[in-house]
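Q: How do we represent a protein-ligand complex in a form that can be generated token by token?
A: Start from the inputs.
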Amino acid sequence: MIKYKLICKKCDNVFDSWFSSSREFDRLKKINLLICSKCNSYKIEKSLMSPQIIKQEKSKINENYEKKIKFLKNKMREYQKFIKNNFDYVGDNFTYEARSIHYNKKKSKGIYGKATVEDIENLKEEGIETQNIPWIEDKEN
Ligand SMILES: [Zn+2]
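Then emit the structure tokens for the protein with zinc ion bound:
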């Protein structure tokens, strides 16, 4: 939704109106659906103030979005920290280690590492459950 400040060219009445897009304004104007609430004139124009208002609202949306991303990344880092502290890192040997735990009943506090989608599918077919988690590198902010 976009809020435009509209101005009536006939009586200078200024009022706010919401549109689903900037195109919708042009469309409604074309079929004379924009009418001044005071004098019923069709001479409605977008006020010059509108772009600024839109810009402000947009930057606020971006700000909220970035806050959300930051929050999620922090959550992921906490989760990664938990895994690092409680599981053994086996790197590229993940598939091998997972099998060896499963078939040799090897005792383990749990492992984590890298595996391809294909590897995970194969493990699943053999009855070895794994959990796929998104992983962010430490260098990322
Ligand atoms: Zn008017």
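The helical segments are 22-30, 50-86, 94-104, 117-125. Residues 8, 10-11, 13, 36, 38-39, 41 surround zinc ion (CB under 6 Å).
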